[in-house]
Design brief:
This protein has a three-stranded antiparallel β-sheet with strand order 3-4-5, with helices on one face. It is of the alpha+beta class and 156 residues long. It has four helices and five strands; from the N terminus they run H-E-E-E-E-H-H-H-E. Helix content is 44%, strand content 24%. The chain starts with a helix and ends with a strand. Strand 3 and strand 4 form a beta hairpin. It is found in: Cell inner membrane; Cell membrane.
């Protein structure tokens, strides 16, 4: 008799577990929580997270003479800026002549040997980012560019 009671109890537990699992997997999804505005209409909530990046091209390409003992060398760099801030590129446009000037001064100090490896070019990208943000900070009080990309890099 004891074995029968134990078997019945196990069957009841398995049956309850099966019913619970069936309910869990077949129930309708819970409604999304919504915020109601003053007029009683649902209000869309802004997505939480990072803003999508935006890009700005410094056109035309920058061309500088490189310091070289064996003759004339040139560097042509096409630069794209990336930012996630709303007002960054309006400030970049406003101060673009100074930004281009400071970048030309930075690039014209280089010699060919200082920019041949990918690591050296990454360092140059970092210096360009610091230069651009220094101009923006000095002129407008805040930086705004998150990254600098060289989309064309030609040494001749």
């Amino acid at each position: 008799m004891n074995k029968k009671i134990i078997m019945i109890a196990i069957q009841v537990v398995v049956l309850i577990a099966a019913i619970g699992a069936t309910w869990f997997f077949t129930r309708p999804p819970a409604p999304e929580p919504t915020t109601v505005g003053e007029d009683g209409q649902p209000v869309e909530e802004k997505a939480v997270g990072k803003k999508a990046p935006e890009y700005y091209s410094l056109s035309p390409s920058l061309v500088v003479n490189l310091q070289n003992e064996r003759g004339i060398r040139f560097l042509m760099v096409e630069i794209e800026l990336m930012s996630r801030r709303d007002d960054a590129f309006s400030r970049v446009e406003q101060y673009e002549p100074r930004i281009r000037n400071d970048l030309l001064m930075l690039f014209s100090k280089l010699d060919r040997a200082a920019i041949t490896t990918p690591e050296q070019r990454q360092t140059l990208q970092d210096e360009a980012l610091l230069t651009i943000n220094a101009v923006l900070t000095e002129e407008s009080g805040k930086a705004g560019v998150d990254a600098v990309y060289f989309t064309k890099f030609v040494i001749q």
